[in-house]
Amino acid sequence: MTSARQRKKRQARASAPRMIGANDNGAGTANDNEALVISGTRLNESQARRFRQAVLAVASPDLRQRREGREAMLRLEEEIEAAQQAIRVANDIAETVELESLRGSQIETSDRKEHEGRKRIASRDGLETLMTARSLSANQFAAGLRFRTDYELLDPEKGLTPPALDQTRNITRGGEGWAKKRTQRELFVRDLEKLIQEEDRTFKGPNGRTAVERTGRAVWALREIAGKGSNLRSLSNSGSVQRSISEALVLALDCAALAYGLE
Q1: CA distance 101 to 82
Q2: Cα(257)–Cα(263) distance, rounded to whole angstroms?
Q3: Are 104 and 171 in a shared domain?
Q4: Rounded-to-5 percentages of helix, strand, coil across the chain
Q5: Cβ(230)–Cβ(107) under 8 Å?
Q6: How confident is the model at residue 57 (pLDDT cuts 50, 70, 90)?
Q7: How far is CA 217 from CA 100, 164, 247, in A?
Q8: What is the pLDDT of residue 59?
Q9: Percent of the chain with pLDDT over 90
Q10: How many CB atoms lie within 10 A of CB 113?
């Protein structure tokens, strides 16, 4: 081996971080200028200094210094574990954000000072979220899914109420009998919404001042969350409003469960 290659190897060994193992904690073997790596975590300058001091204290013949050295070692170990846990959490969040982004979810970053940098999945399905949070029963969740199938079938952009059924259109999609099936489902959904409105005190009909009052909050919540899959957070930032929407949805889903024969 040439002298140049030997010098290069010595320089590489000198610049590499020094791993400290269970049997390599002696203060006399550690150079103050060398980086210390414990359990895969590189210590900063303060931690490295405290580690070396703790090693000397543990090796001291004085019992009090030994105890203080062990306590310092335990505090340092807690710091290292906390740093490693923070890295694991950050990696888990990054992985979740990446997966949800691939699924088409909208990821929001909080701008509130106390929650700075916190990630939130804003577009996750509202019905599924409520079921996961145990805010819905199995029958209510099933009724919501059944309603979503009907809602998507009926082309919601045209509105479910109050236009008259248009049976003059020449519908070719969906195969033979599709138009009849669609008409039947439209009638069913209208009857369901009328049933819900009879139970909903927020329903004002044509006298309502807002679109929600004219359809009733329960029907509106059913369309938005069960029909479209909207999330409560996307409908309102107010906790009290979210609760009232959730309560209205439960009322609507109870009626839907009866109508679909799930109760």
Answers
A1: 28
A2: 6
A3: no
A4: 65, 5, 30
A5: no
A6: very high
A7: 30, 22, 10
A8: 93
A9: 33
A10: 6
